[in-house]
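Hey L., structure's done. Input below.
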Amino acid sequence: MTPHIEAEIGDIAKYVLIPGDPNRATYIANKYLEEARLVNKVRGELAYTGKYKGVEVTVFSSGMGIGSMGIYSHELFDVYDVNAIIRIGTAGAYKEELKPYTIIIADSSYSDTNFDLESGSEDIEIINSSFELNNIINMTANIRRIDVITGRVYTTDAFYTDRRNYDYFINKGCIATEMETYALLYNAKKFHKMASSILTISDNLITHEEMSSEERERRLDDMIVLALDSIIKLEK
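Output:
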C-alpha cells in the first residue's frame, strides 16, 4: 500500500494500462477483462485487475496532469514493481491532417515542465518512449490493420493556456499536445521500466474539429484493443 494506492502487493499486474478518466477504466474492465476486480478506489482513482486473453492486466486511472501521472506511475513502478505501463488517452493535434480519431503512438515527449528538476534534479526536455514496447505496438497495429501515426507529443502543465504559438511546439518536433506522457516516460527512465502512450486525437487545434465528451469516453476502442493486444505480445 501507498498513500495513494490501497491495493496489496500482488493485486497489481506487471502490465498496466493507464487512462486518465476513472469512467474509462471501468468501461475497459467491464468490456474487456475477465474476472475483473476493483483493487483501488482511493481519491476516486479506480483500478481493476483481471485477465485479457489469459494474461493478467491492471487498468488504473491516473487523473489529469503531470503531477497526478507522476505520483501513480512512480508508485506503480517503484512499489508494485510494474514492468510496463501504456497510457491510453486523448490529445489535441497540431497538424491539419490529424483528424479526430487518428491514433498516435508517442515515440517521445517534449516538455518545459519542472517535473524533472523536482523529481530527479535533472534538466531533460525530451524523453523517449520504450523502443521495444513501441516496436510491439506498431507490429500489433499492423497485424490488426489499425492505422497509426508515430510522433512526438508536447506534454503541457496547463489545459487552459495562452500559449497559442503552435509553431514553437511544431519546431520542437511535436505533432500533438496532451498532459501526462512526459511524467510517465520520465518515471519509466528513472526506474528502468517500459512505457509508452497511445493517444487518440480528440480535437484539432488548427481546424477546430473535435469529438464530443461522450465520444471521448466511448469511441476509443481501437486504441484500447491495440494497447491490450500489445501487452499480450509483450508477455510472450
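The radius of gyration is 16 Å. Residues 117 and 123 are 6 Å apart (CA to CA).

-- N.
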